[in-house]
Amino acid sequence: MNEFSSTYDPKGIEDKWYAFWIEKKYFTPDMKSNKPPYTIMIPLPNVTGRLTLGHVLNNSDQDILIRYKKFSNYETLWMSGMDHAGIATQVVVEEKLLEQGIRRKELGREKFVAAVWQWKEEYANIIRTQLQRLGCALDWSRECFTLSEEYSKRVIKVFIELYNKGLIYRGEYIINWCPRCLTALSDEQVETEEEMGKLYYIKYPIVGTKTFITVATTRPETMLGDTGVCVNPKDKRYKTIIGKKALLPIMEREIPIIADDYVDPDFGTGALKVTPAHDPFDFELAKKHNLEFINIMNPDATLNENTKRFNTVDRYTARKEVIEQLKNLKLLKKIENYKLPLSKCERCKTATEPRISKQWFVKMKPLAGPALEVVQNGTVKLYPKRWTNLYSHWLENVHDWCISRQLWWGHRIPAYYCKQCFNPDDTESKKGIIVSATKPEKCPTCGSTDVYQDEDVLDTWFSSWLWPFATLGWPSDTEDFRRFYPTQTLVTGWDIIYLWVARMIMAGLEFTDQIPFNNVLFHPMVRDEKGRKMSKSLGNSPDPMDLVDNYGADALRFGLQLITPKEQDVLFSEKSIEVGRKFCNKLWNASRLIWMHHKDDNESLLENVSMYDSWILHEFNVLLDSVKNHYANFELNAIAKEMYAYVWHTFCDWYLEFIKIVPTHDTPKYLLKQILIILNPFMPFITEEIYHKFHFAKESIMQEQWPEKIDIKHDIKQINAIKKLIEEIRNIRGMFNIKSKEKLNVLINTSTDDHEGFLKDNGALLQKLARIERIEFNKPVTGSVASIIMPDIQCYVKLSGIDVDKEKRRLAKEIQFLSQRIDEIKYRLNNPQYMSQAGDEIKNRENERLENFLKKREGIVKAIEKL
């Protein structure tokens, strides 16, 4: 502990301090404390694999907020836990078993679930270790799992309550179906990608005539389940055939021609084939017009017996065969290329099928109303505010939630059926359905003991929407629930604003009569430098633990925060982590310098404060005010940037250089401690290590209080003036290509004796930092000079050996070059076509380049004026 190595190596240090924090129980709240609570619930990582850079950003944000609030005298709880992730986990484990030649159905439900539990234990430990390596101040003593016995009881209780209120029902609707996972999917579990496909124009003979009605479809195989053709009643082309029948090709089944305003007469031919069992809009049309429902597809996306000769044929093979048969019948009019949205299962990427199915649903409108109101009236605040619009759009257009999944891994639906009186085809009646937490001994309707449980499980989100309160002991009136609920802040990605955020607000209001949290911070998505989504297949998704191995957790966390804008996606590059590492090294070297010269100073600020000390303390006060304001608005990127600028430039580049020349006591050590505290939420490991090098009073930096503003004892205007003067002299050196080793001669004229006296008293500092050989005061200006005009100070840098005319010509050429670049950028930014196609990142980059070029040109113009 007495040594302070010349270089910082995070290896060993990070593990040492995390073990220390756990041992001291710094992450576990003191239940006897009178401090106000501050609670964050971790967005549950899935037990399906390792963490991504998105997880790093998400958990770093939460850790920063928790540590800041702990310093700010709050009793903090960051609840740890994981999600069983039904479909995602089942798919992964199935694939692993298949590699061993084992199929799920051959294994059986009980043994398969046991295999998944084994997987869960292995990967839960991996995720736990990864979060710990990042330095996350999670309370591991309260860790929850959504499929644990206690949590499952709460999930089942909620299902029963909603069923008894009439908000859960069994119904038959068109749902998204994954033929690979063999389960229903919610709309939010489906990804849509645009792909180039075909639009097929098929002629349907009109019964009793020699004419045809032509329909256009992208899925010709589904025509085998058509039960009608629909046109717009105002479409003059079809007025005379409304009410007649068409003959369905191949199936040779007569189907009615109906009219409905729903049909767009300008799309395709204006005639719509109606396939009620395989399209959600056709489903509604069929109910309205009493059309027949014919399911033509098996669960695995092969066609069924309702398609006659196509029975057991794969959907895509059937498409080719249907097209061939239509060609032979001369009923295929034409085929066009057509860009269409293709829906895929978000987990296995298989193309989904709209499929009529009997499932369990939650009525969402009664729950959505209160959840919409608390966001619109500001009771729950969303950051950035623009996400309020998306939230409102979702809830104003909410659909009932399909909560049943045809899986084995998950909470089994607590519904039991009587074999004697339950009719599975009757979704209107509750007869023979018993919803219960335990298996009933007999049917309450007929008394039969032949009762069996629903095979399906609940959607994963049906358990995670209870996360803010089910983790704290609800429905029991526990001490945790009373103390830490409602929680204060949720940090998550905007992509699950409806899947999770909105549903948690609904559940909180419905089951606890309280909002589950006050604030929601949506962080951006992490993409690669080209703006692409990160994925293993693209090879652009680095393992965060490899980055921790190479750079250290603090460098990864801080580097990521530096490049995370408030309202745009993060364009990740490993260069940003290199910036984080260099900042760690800068902090380490600065701390070591102070340790070498001031380690025995007092850590409290004493009266012995110089004018230069007052200046750096004033700048720290400015930083504190700004950081406090940014925390209030969850602007963590702004905090990282301002702390970086203060530590690297203000503290290291200026103050530490000042005090190498002007002696000081106590302030460097005192201020370093304050800097370590405000950096700790972003960089917990290195700040703890440096803190202990100085043997500060507390056992850990985590026991310190957030810094308060410091009374400033001196007028710092003259320090700002000498700093400005040094900067201007350095700028002149750069403008005129004067080598750094070449010392300058300057003439300084001042308007007051006080300014002259101050500059003379600090002449040694001015000469060293500006690399000046000789300073003259208050003499006439002669020869070639570059001038610096400041209030009360005029400085003239002598330009001996410089051809002024040649220098002016060189600078004029540079102005010409910059002006061309400026005109090019302005042209692009004023071009509506360019602006409509360019992404936000490109627009911002172009504006930034324009600003930089303008500043550079302005500086050169001033340089010419100085000659």
Description:
The protein has 27 helices and 28 strands. The strands form nine sheets. A four-stranded antiparallel sheet has the order 5-4-13-15. The chain has a four-stranded mixed sheet with strand order 9-10-8-11, with helices on one face. 37% of the residues are buried.
What brief labels describe this structure?
single chain, four-stranded mixed sheet, alpha/beta, 27 helices, 867 residues, four-stranded antiparallel sheet
Tell me the span between the first and last alpha carbons: 56 Å
Q: Numbering strands along the chain, what is their spatial order in the largest sheet? A: 5-4-13-15
Judged by helices, strands and strand pairing, the structural class is alpha/beta
How is the biggest beta sheet arranged?
4 strands, antiparallel
Helix share bin: 40-55%
Shape annotation: globular
CA radius of gyration:
35 Å
Low-confidence stretches: none
| Strand residue content | 15-25%
Mean pLDDT: 92
Number of strands: 28
Please, how many helices? 27
